[in-house]
Amino acid sequence: MTQLTGQSTIDDDVVLLTVPADGGYLGVLRTATAGLAARLHFALDEIEDLRIAVDEACAMLLAVATRDAELDCRFAVTEDALTVEVTVPTVAGARLPAESSFAWKVLTALTTSATAGMAGGRATIGLLTRRGTGR
Predict the structure, then answer these.
(1) Which of 26, 56, 87, 113 lies in the 20 to 30 Å Cα band around 70?
(2) Greatest CA separation found in the chain?
(3) Mean pLDDT in order along the chain per 10 residues (135 residues)
(4) If you classify domain 13-130 with CATH, what class do you get?
(5) Which InterPro entries has this protein been placed in (predicted)?
């Protein structure tokens, strides 16, 4: 089940990508995001919004990542939604931006919903975007 939707997904509809926690590799995640959203027939503006949201979420995580860390990204595809969960190991005492921050305003404006959590020395940001909801 996906954390954000509670809906079951078929194993074939989950894509896992791991890239170095370096800004130079975020293009890989943006491209994967766009490709999966296009597969769901998202509108072009919805695809671009989701690409920007993934980029912003990753930027938040890079700021708290340990040296030589990897970003783990899980894409879950359902009939009308794409869930993206990005996780990274964090430095001791790391904190993600507050929900009142500009970065969170961007995430919530560009997606249907956004969540964040820290546990076990890892930070995770989850994004859910439903096709054609008009947010």
Answers:
(1) 113
(2) 41
(3) 46 86 94 93 94 95 95 93 96 90 91 94 96 64
(4) alpha beta
(5) HATPase_C_sf
